[in-house]
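Quick one, tokens below:
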């Protein structure tokens, strides 16, 4: 039971921390995942803890790209399983994407805990669970090189929330279109991905589901136009400008 009062000005942020700590205690989250969340939270402060206009444009482009895909796959790690399993599964159902568990700090016990959590929250097919279908992604030395033949390996679009830069680069080299959620617009992941959603994953995944449902009424030409008109480098620059403007506003009170 959370002791955080709803009136607390940092209530949402503190509740997210609680979810992550609970995920660690349940064997979903690696210790390193706690540190990674803290880094992202710092950038969320700088962005004003809201979904910016630039992030909404990226979400729109991401939804169009997913709907155009032949085989979209959502890569799941421990933090995602702890923070927003229902939201990710809902996104998969709305968009027709598959779900694959893929871990940097991999061990079988943690993977089983993540699979159990996903199933509990409504997931049916979960890839990355059967070693008979395992293969490797070239250009990687970490455990994330092991992927499912019917999932990430075969995918044309890979959605990678809370990603590491090495695998994003490897996925791009393998010819995949990469969509990521990353609160740090300066990270290698952000800079390397095709579409970077610079937003808190909990806010952004839900918005992405809503946008996929909305854009599903559009024809192929309309979706292609949305993707073509999106420029990831410009969008990242706009997010950096947003951070600068937020800091400038705050500096007036110093």
């Amino acid at each position: 039971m959370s002791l955080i009062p709803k009136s607390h000005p940092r209530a949402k942020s503190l509740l997210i921390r609680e979810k992550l700590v609970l995920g660690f205690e349940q064997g979903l989250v690696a210790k390193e995942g706690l540190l990674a969340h803290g880094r992202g939270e710092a950038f969320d402060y700088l962005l004003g803890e809201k979904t910016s206009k630039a992030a909404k444009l990226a979400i729109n482009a991401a939804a169009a790209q997913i709907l155009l895909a032949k085989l979209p796959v959502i890569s799941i790690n421990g933090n995602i399983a702890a923070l927003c399993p229902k939201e990710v599964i809902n996104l998969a159902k709305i968009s027709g994407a598959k779900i694959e568990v893929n871990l940097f700090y991999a061990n079988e016990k943690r993977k089983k805990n993540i699979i159990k959590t996903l199933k509990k929250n409504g997931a049916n097919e979960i890839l990355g669970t059967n070693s008979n279908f395992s293969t490797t992604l070239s250009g990687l030395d970490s455990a994330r090189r092991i992927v499912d033949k019917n999932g990430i390996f075969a995918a044309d679009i890979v959605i990678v929330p809370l990603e590491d830069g090495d695998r994003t680069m490897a996925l791009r080299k393998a010819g995949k279109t990469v969509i990521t959620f990353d609160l740090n617009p300066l990270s290698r992941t952000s800079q390397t991905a095709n579409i970077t959603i610079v937003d808190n994953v909990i806010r952004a995944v839900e918005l992405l589901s809503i946008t996929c449902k909305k854009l599903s009424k559009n024809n192929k030409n309309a979706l292609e136009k949305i993707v073509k008109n999106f420029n990831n480098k410009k969008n990242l620059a706009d997010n950096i400008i947003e951070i600068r403007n937020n800091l400038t506003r705050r500096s007036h009170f110093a």
